[in-house]
Amino acid sequence: MTTVSDWNGDYVRTYDPTGRIVSLQNPDSARFSWTWDAVGRRRTLNAPDAGVTTYNYDAAGQLTSLINPQTERTTFGYDARVPLPRSYVAMIAARE
């Protein structure tokens, strides 16, 4: 656990054994949390008052999509000639 202070107050950060951040508490006591997969890719970000963002990857480890708390999916495509992703946003229909 690490505490960093500034004029707003204390920020408390917690890390997993490999050094990846797993939580951050800000001076207002709002707590952000992250989860990681076995190979170190971010799987989720849980933000207070917003919700969970989920990250998905292909077999090569490239980010293929993220789903934000409003269930909007951002999809990333990759061109073998250019190492930068192409992306677009589409709504995901809520299923019950």
Main sheet characteristics: 9 strands, antiparallel
Strand content: over 45%
Radius of gyration: 16 Å
Strand elements, count? 9
Poorly predicted residue ranges: 88-96
Strand order, biggest sheet? 1-2-3-4-5-6-7-8-9
Average residue-wise pLDDT: 84
Number of helices: 0
Helix content: under 10%
- Structural shape: globular
Secondary-structure-based class equals mainly beta
Roughly how many Å apart are the termini? 39 Å
H/E element sequence: EEEEEEEEE
Structural features, described:
The protein is an all-beta fold. It has a domain at about 30-90. The protein contains no helices and nine strands. It has strands at about 1-5, 10-15, 20-25, 30-35, 40-45, 50-55, 65, 70-80, 80-90. The chain has a nine-stranded antiparallel beta sheet, with no helix packed on it. A hairpin with a 5-residue loop joins β4 (about 30-35) and β5 (about 40-45). The protein is globular and about 45 Å long. The N and C termini lie far apart (about 40 Å). Residues about 90-95 have low confidence and may be disordered. Pfam families: RHS_repeat. This is RHS repeat protein. It comes from Blastopirellula marina.
Write a concise synopsis of the structure shown.
This protein has 96 residues and is mostly beta strands. It has no helices and nine strands. A hairpin with a 5-residue loop joins strand 6 and strand 7.
Provide the fold topology.
Blueprint: E1 2-6, E2 9-15, E3 21-25, E4 31-36, E5 42-47, E6 51-57, E7 63-67, E8 72-79, E9 82-91
Antiparallel strand pairs: 1-2, 2-3, 3-4, 4-5, 5-6, 6-7, 7-8, 8-9
Protein name: RHS repeat protein
InterPro entries: RHS_repeat, YD
Pfam family, one: RHS_repeat
